[in-house]
Design brief:
This protein is an all-alpha fold and about 60 residues long. The protein contains 3 helices and no strands. The longest helix has 24 residues. It is globular, with a radius of gyration of 15 Å.
Amino acid sequence: MSGSDFKRMYGVKPETFWMMVKVVRDGKEGSRGSHASIPIPDQILLTGLRQISSQNKAQSTFIS
């Protein structure tokens, strides 16, 4: 997938996305608890999609 296709689909450049993955991984080093069943890159995508969805709902409510 090209960088422009990635940005169009996920809203960030691939470089930014992998930087986000690195920050989350570095923050989880040494943390306790069970391991997540969803990989960190997928968690970031799900979180981002949830935020975009809620922003779109808020904008459509404001416009109506």
